[in-house]
Amino acid sequence: MLKNETENIQHQLAKHCRSNADLPIPGAKHERLHHYRRLIYTIIEDAIESAYPIARSILSDNQWTEMIDTFVAEHNCQHPQLFRMPEEVIQFAIDKNYPLKFKIPHLIDVLQFEWAEIEIHSMKDEIIPEITLVNDLLNAHLKFSPYCQLLALDYPVHHLNKIDVANSQGEYFMLVYREESGTVQYLELTALTHYVIVELSSGSSTLKNALDRVISEEENQTELYKLGVLFLKDLRAKGVLLS
Amino acid sequence: MDNVGLGFRRDLSDEILALNYNESPAFIEIAPENWIDLGGYWGKILKSAAERFPITSHGLSLSIGSPDPLDWDYIKKIKHFLNENNISIYSEHLSYSQSKNAHLYDLLPIPFREDAVKHISQRLREVQDFLEMPIALENVSYYTPVAAEMDEATFISSIVQESGCKLLLDVNNVFVNSFNHNYDPQEFISKLPLSEVQYIHMAGHEKVEEDLIIDTHGQPIISDVFELFEWTLPQLNKVPVLLERDFNFPEMAEIVQELNTLEAITQKSWTKTMKHA
Q1: From residue B224, how far is each of A242, B220, B221, B240 by CA, in Å?
Q2: Is this complex scored with an ipTM above 0.85?
Q3: Could you report the per-residue pLDDT of A73-104, keeping only the tens digit for each?
Q4: Disulfide engineering: A241 pairs with which of A98, A145, A236, B263, CB 3.0-4.6 Å?
């Protein structure tokens, strides 16, 4: 029903706003078009900067501008909710190979860490059935809060101000979780505690099953079981473990 | 207050919820896109607001004037959200914010053309049928016409007539457009289907060039816009009036003062109208 000509004009205007390309838009006051470009650019940039203040701080002004310019021009934002759109920056930065280009190897980890906080903070409330606390944390199948997320990162981005993160590549694990108040916290994990949560939250393993698979050769198994139970009690106190 | 509501922005939410009865707006307006599927802290805030105030809604991403297909997954979420929060008015913008499968998150001007009227009216009918309610469509501010083949009032009126939608009359936008495009705002309003006005918006703006005003919602309403509002009201049925303030927030007392001014005008205008009737 819409004529090709009208459709093309509308796409041309949108393209101008995204790329700043000088495109013919019939009937327009061309000296005023830059206001649309400015408004759209600012809305998208502000949303991304609000979501990723740490990433913004580790990028130079030129790097930041290059990333935002390219994102606005080339990336087709998919989410109708503006506050959820910045998630799309993560894959965009991977695709553009910005960690290598900007010589900031931990950039993607920073973006993932910052987005996890937003995602957990804003996550839709779920109806959680009443769950009885179990006494035998070692042998029971356990339920975890839906408001948490595990991160496996290559850089210790949670220590950004304390150490030379870029030169500390390794295996780092974190649990990001939402408290009852709505506040989001994170907990550093070891490879073992990360593994335990992955196994237990799948619902198919108990703590004992999970530990037995990795500590069968250890001499102090009983002590490790106790530490595992203490770890789960701590997760329960934090509201991460519901059982 | 009986007639005047306030945009419920996150930056204002605590202060709005803390207002006492005498200072409280008659209702609040939310943008569904800012609240859909939102839990945790902000979910609790919305729940508190919904318990205290009637809610109207003002969408941002329907992009009714876009050449792109409608996003039915999103429209289904809108319907669920409206029902879940007992929202009786769903308003949107007569503009487009999506092109070539990309959201732009701002309101681009549509060519005032007959084919656009048909295209938009058809899409409005489809969405309204699905939502089982009319959409109140806002006359948007625009800074340049684009490939226009008819005037703006005819464009708006044709869409209202063909789609059966309602009109959200944004009085500030009329003022902004009349300044930017050099026409008479009263004459413009007189050409609109005023019996179909379901909702009114009022806001501040910013003059950025000698001949250009941007519709910022970041300043107080100016006296010229209050005057246009006062001139318009007697011609309308009694409808909700909303104060939009989206950034550059002043003290809450200043916002309450603006609400009171708007309320006083509505009381004066509509009481008089009813007496005359």
Answers
A1: 59, 12, 8, 21
A2: yes
A3: 999 999 999 999 999 999 999 999 999 999 99
A4: A236
